[in-house]
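Example record used in the benchmark description.
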Amino acid sequence: MSERRLSLRVPYGAWVEDETEGGLTFFLSQNLSLGGILLRSASAPPAVGHKVRLRLVVENESRIMSVQGEVLRHTSEDGEFAVRFVNLDGPRMTFLRELVQEAKEAGGPDASSPDAGV
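Model output (structure tokens):
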């Protein structure tokens, strides 16, 4: 039986900053959807269930948006982990929709179709 992703995942190459550890921790994002983001950590990823406040930074632009999330799972042995967005209000959802649309247009045919996951 095939599970279906709730939101289209698109390539997203910006850095994401975790503001919750008393400083900033930088993660490179792998892909993005309206429901969450897949990140890669150079060190050990945060624990499953860890609450994060992510600052999504669009490269070469001044647009930044802070969103809350929760680590859902570790996806591989190389530091990848999935974060589900939580408590999204109207302005944050609008920002994410615009960001996903821009990434989809920039990603062209490499944008993932909906499937299993966040």
